Inverse folding.
């Protein structure tokens, strides 16, 4: 069995638990709640059974990003991060942490990330998509000008940043009206996250901060399979400047993005991602507790990829990205 590191694996606190209550049928809530609130029991047994050496844990969604009051968002994030740090001290070889960040206020987010990286020894941040704020009538996406000083801190800390999905706000989700099955992981999660990632790429952010490292889950939220079309639409027409960034979108994608296998256990899709971005930028994940660890691991162990790529994706890419020593 391939030794593995998994990095889109969630927990909840008492304050954030109910944010996950609507993502599965009510009949499954008891099981999901148990999984979310457990760290050292069932989770560890699953890890041991399926060869997961280390989990990098992150807060459930949307949690902090849906708290419109910036100070309250900060306080909830700080309490969640302190709780996670305490849990890691109980099993320091098995668990590491991603910081939850109050992105409603870029300065507070930068300070909390710095605290988490330097004092709590976390390995990066995971943010659940756009943030809502009493200070803005529109959702806050992180290509906006007020976030560029925050990204400077992310670059200075060399902190990988996981852009995790959330559903669009009801006001922005009219296309899903009458079709609730399309929300969440079926489609809306991926579309929302892909557009956010494209905004980052097109904004010029990576020209200003070439050291940034962004992670997206679910084998890229559909992005790898659209790179050519994004850069070559209407190829016969006269060229026009379409966005502030200096390069093609595919150049930023290949240089700054990493993909995980979380919740997308299909070999054809994995191979397509490898062909687009390279095996050095794909990392194993399960998306526990929303997906099963055994489903992720059993599929990964049998996927028709090379032994060298299986070891990279399963373990060594994460060791290098997060500076985890064997």
């Amino acid at each position: 069995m391939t030794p593995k590191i998994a990095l889109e694996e969630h927990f909840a606190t008492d304050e954030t638990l109910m944010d996950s209550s609507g993502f599965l049928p009510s009949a499954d809530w008891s099981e999901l709640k148990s999984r979310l609130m457990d760290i050292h029991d069932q989770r560890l047994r699953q890890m041991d059974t399926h060869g997961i050496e280390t989990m990098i844990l992150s807060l459930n969604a949307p949690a902090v990003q849906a708290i419109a009051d910036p100070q309250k968002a900060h306080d909830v994030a700080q309490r969640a991060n302190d709780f996670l740090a305490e849990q890691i001290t109980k099993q320091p070889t098995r668990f590491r942490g991603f910081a939850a960040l109050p992105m409603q206020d870029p300065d507070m987010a930068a300070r909390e990330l710095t605290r988490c990286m330097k004092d709590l020894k976390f390995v990066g941040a995971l943010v659940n998509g756009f943030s809502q704020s009493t200070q803005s009538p529109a959702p806050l996406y992180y290509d906006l000008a007020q976030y560029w000083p925050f990204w400077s801190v992310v670059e200075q800390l060399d902190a990988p940043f996981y852009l995790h999905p959330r559903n669009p706000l009801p006001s922005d989700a009219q296309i899903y009206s009458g079709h609730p099955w399309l929300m969440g992981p079926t489609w809306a999660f991926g579309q929302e996250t892909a557009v956010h990632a494209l905004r980052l790429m097109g904004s010029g952010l990576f020209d200003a901060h070439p050291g940034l490292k962004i992670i997206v889950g679910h084998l890229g939220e559909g992005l790898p399979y659209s790179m050519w079309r994004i850069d070559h639409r209407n190829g016969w027409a006269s060229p026009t400047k379409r966005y502030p960034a200096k390069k093609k979108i595919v150049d930023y994608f290949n240089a700054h993005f990493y993909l995980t296998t979380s919740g997308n256990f299909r070999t054809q899709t994995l191979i397509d991602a490898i062909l687009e971005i390279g095996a050095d930028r794909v990392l194993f994940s399960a998306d526990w507790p929303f997906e099963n660890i055994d489903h992720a691991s059993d599929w990964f162990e049998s996927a028709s990829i090379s032994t060298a790529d299986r070891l990279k994706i399963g373990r060594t890419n994460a060791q290098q990205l997060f500076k985890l020593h064997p």
User: Anything to note?
Assistant: The chain has a mean pLDDT of 96. Residues 190 and 221 are 5 Å apart (CA to CA). The chain has one domain: 4-322.
